[in-house]
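Listing S7. Sequence submitted for prediction.
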Amino acid sequence: MTREAFVVSASNEDAVRALDGFPDAVGGVLALVGPQGAGKTHLLTAWAERTGAALLSGELAAVADLGALQGRLVALDDADRADDETLFHLFNMAGEAGAGLVLGARRAPAAWETALPDLRSRLNAVRVVAIGEPDDAVLRGVLVRFFAEASVRPSADLLEYLVRRIERSVPDARQVVRRLIEAAAPLQRPVTRALAREVLEAETKTGDLPF
């Protein structure tokens, strides 16, 4: 999940630009919001690697050593799953010198539920940048990359066929490529549009399609 491997397009360029420039003069807290499979985790991971930030998961944030995060940059994925107390402390620490907090979630912080009035006001004030579901350019780019990992060079018509039919999700694109490779290997068949149609239609009929 490197920054170089992330496919930039109109659906995500605002989010990429915001993270590339964070922390900026404003600093504080930034929320990266978008649907599942849009690339939020990839961007957060790449940002944490570039900046040396601590990377946390919302569900596990409660067990983190908050003292060790004092004055540090923090990336919190699935932030809407973090408990109120941990979020409140992370928000407070984000205002310290050298600190900053990036939140990844499907919904904007203003829509999160909380029982803490002080946290509510902070969530409502968070600067939000949206990342859209993968468009054709992103899907095409990640499909090429996933095929390349298996030493397969997909044809243009195969890519166009898949882009029109799979869910707009990077994890689902990876799953589709894996299934095509697995289907082709025993028969020593090339991965073609014809094979893709066979696999996708067969899985649709059996209900095994992962998307």
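Caption to Listing S7: primary sequence and predicted structure tokens for the chain studied. The helical segments are 13-20, 40-51, 84-94, 117-124, 136-149, 156-165, 170-187, 193-206. Residues 170-187 form the longest helix (18 residues).
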